[in-house]
DNA sequence: GCCAACGTTGGC
DNA sequence: GCCAACGTTGGC
């Protein structure tokens, strides 16, 4: 299983929106590095959902439920990708960006190192640490 | 509201 | 193919 982190602005699409839909298309990613991560997603992978903007925290998780497929909203001739994800749950406690930044073990997170990237991979160790922090 | 970090566009 | 100008994202 792989672990991922996706960012969203809750004003435009929040974890609550995903929860109410149950399952939805994750599309609209227009960055090559992010696209390369989506390409590697597999059904069953765990996805952490991060709210940017005011909240700046990981708020919940989702599961990948499809293989990557061409983004239906991509312009003609453009090869962007989308996947279907299903709401998995809210974290017991959101893990804030400042918590992540002050954690010795999470300094290599792309969230910290490359603040504009909207889809990134996590190591199992990083995922475990985040789950532990969310339970604390 | 500002600014850093990127990505994209267009002139040359 | 280089690079300046501009737009966008997102933290502060």
From TrEMBL:
UniProt domain EVE: residue ranges: 2-133
InterPro entries documented for this protein: 5hmC_binding, EVE_domain, PUA-like_sf, THYN1-like_EVE
Chain segments annotated as coiled-coil in the UniProt record: none
Name under which the protein is recorded: EVE domain-containing protein
């Amino acid at each position: 299983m792989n672990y991922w982190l996706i960012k969203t602005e809750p004003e435009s699409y929040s974890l609550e929106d995903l929860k109410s839909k149950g399952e939805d298309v994750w599309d609209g990613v227009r960055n090559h590095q992010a696209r390369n991560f989506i390409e590697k997603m597999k059904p069953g992978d765990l996805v952490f959902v991060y709210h940017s903007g005011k909240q700046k925290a990981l708020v919940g998780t989702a599961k990948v439920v499809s293989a990557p497929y061409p983004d239906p909203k991509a312009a003609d001739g453009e090869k962007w990708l989308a996947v279907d994800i299903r709401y998995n749950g809210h974290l017991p406690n959101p893990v804030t960006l400042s918590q992540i930044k002050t954690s010795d073990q999470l300094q290599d997170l792309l969230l910290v190192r490359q603040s504009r990237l909207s889809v990134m991979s996590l190591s199992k160790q990083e995922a475990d640490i985040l789950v532990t922090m969310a339970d604390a």
